Each structure stands twice: as structure tokens, then as C-alpha cells.
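Case study 2.
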Amino acid sequence: MSSACFAGTTTTRGYHLTSSTACGAASATATAPSAARYPRFTTTNFPRRSSAMTTTTTTRAAAAAAGEHLAYEKCLALLASTPPTVALPYHPTQTVQNVVRIALEEDVANVGDVSSLSTIPEDLRATATLLAKADGVLAGEHLANEILSIVDEDIEAFWQKRDGEEIERGEIFCYLRGSARGILRAERVVLNFMQRMSGIATLTKKMSEAAKPARILETRKTVPGLRVIDKWAVLIGGGENHRMGLFDMVMIKDNHVAAARGIKNALASSTTFLIEGGEKYEGVMIELETRTMEEVREVCGLLEDAGTDTSRVQRVMLDNMSMEDMRDAAGMLNKFGVETEASGNVTLETIGGIGATGVTFISSGQLTHSVVALDISLNIENNQ
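Prediction:
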């Protein structure tokens, strides 16, 4: 992507993503889309941004160049209050670039976009808009930048909203300018990621607000190969991440307990394994799953026993318990300074009551395994 399009870059644990800066507000009211409400942009009135956008004079000039379609006041407000980038969750082997390249390759294989190649001249330039067709939380801005830069580094993106901000039905939240072929090659991959991520972020925000004072977590119930992306969307929506995989936290569940012949044996074996592993497992903590009050009392006994090494126990899961039992269990476990996590039967209707029981976290697979994609479209506005 053109360096003039973005104010800077953010590098997080090996991932390099371009960070954009909003140039104005082409926000429409939340009514049904109509052709009259969306102006056709030309090279003279296309929304522009300065490479710096640091002074009132520069901002005023940029807003003026955009014509009557952009409100200067909102442009200035967006620039002054640009939210921080939501960092990618860490994964030691997966990269966003690899995920994007796989998605693009499956679309064009080793042949190309034959529809665009056969109908659009190679040198044709176009402008396009990204339009919200439903209310929700935007997620995937930085990922879209990555996709566009891989397809054609000369495509420019002018973001009116940032990751984590709300978008309304009928609102244009991004303008694109560049090769018509490039924009159309990137279109479906951009939309597939952004629609899914925005759907996850939208539900996460609703559940996160309803869960307070508890904090919302997702699970490992993600699309294979897209775990980093799904968990990133949860962060953008205001949630927090559970363990990334089987490698970064010991979670002793019912099957482990059964195989080890008891919670005590499973805990002792796990603790020894982590300690003997030294640096390799430094920082890897343990979560114990409980399903009954009897198991909660057993865990409390282990936490209280000076002869049992519980130094790696960070959290206790309360799985599919009643509200009353969760409240009692959270009260018992909080005395030992461990986190508690409620799991099972978590919906928008039940999460408020669960959050009021005193648990630290509420985990919900629904955030990622039952996501409803947010409806977004890309429309070519004109060619240049």
C-alpha cells in the first residue's frame, strides 16, 4: 500500500501490520442504502489524507479537498482521538501473512482472476467503497490493509472508522483507490475476513458489556487455521483471550482427571512436569476444571494443604454449574487468590446472571463457533 495512506506501522511479536489514520467522515445515517446517498467520487473530490495529518492547517486542507461529502469537524475529531491499535494475540508459529496468502491463493490458484482479466483493462484505475449493511463493531481494518498490500501495494485505503469502533447500516467506512483488477482480486478475501471478524467483535462487545463485572473469554472452538484471526476479533470487540492452544496453558479437564485417577494426581503430575521442564515451560500455568461442589471442595483442600505444590494453579473452571453453586464456589475459591471461570450454558440471556455470581471470567464458545457474519459490501464507484 502507498506510504502516503498510513501514518505508521505497528509491530507486535513478529507480526508487521500497517496502521491507518482516518482522513474524514463520510458517515451516512442508519437508514436503508439508496443510490442518491452515495456520491460518485472522481480524482478531484475523492476523500484525501495528508501523510502527516498533524496540524490544523493540514487537516483543514485534507478535509476541504474531500468536498462537501466529508465534515471537517468530524475529520478533526477522528484524527485527535484515533484509538490505539488492538494488538494481535501471540502465536509462536502462525503469521497473519501466511493466513492471507493461503486465502488469496485458494481464490486465484496459479491462474488468476479470469473474470477481471477478461473484462478489465490492465491499466484501469477505480475507486470503491466499503459499506456497512448492518449495525455492528468494525474489525479487520488492519488485516484488510495487509491483504491489499499483498495484492497490490499501490492500492490506497482511506479508513473513516477504526477497528473496535461502531459502524451503522448504510455507513461508508472506507474508500479504496487503485487498480480495478487489484481491488476486485482482493474484494472477496477482504470481505470474508472482515465480515467474520466484525461479527465476532459485535457479539463479543454485547456479551462483554452484559457480563460485567466478570470478563468475557472465547475458547479454542475456532475455525481451523484461523485461530489467531478469530481471537484477534474477540480482542477488538472488548473481550479477552483464553489460552491460544494446547501449548500455552495446562488445562486439567475431566478426561485428564479420569486418566490420571483423580484431581490430586493430575495436579501433582502437571506441576512436576512444568517445573522439570525449566525455561521451556516458564510462565505456563494450570487451570483445573470442576463440575460439582464436591470437586470444588477438593480443590480448596489442595490449595489449603501446605504439602501440595499449587504454585502453578492460576484458575479454576466451574463447568455447567447452577447459579447458586457458582456463587458459592466463587466465594470459596476467591479466598485463595485464584481466578475463577464460569463455562457452559453461556448466552446473552444468561451471562448477566453468571457475571453477578462473583466469577472472574466467563468463557463462551459461541463467540467464535456460532458467529453471524456482519453484512458488508464493496462497491466500485467509478473508474479513472
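Residues 120 and 181 are 7 Å apart (CA to CA).
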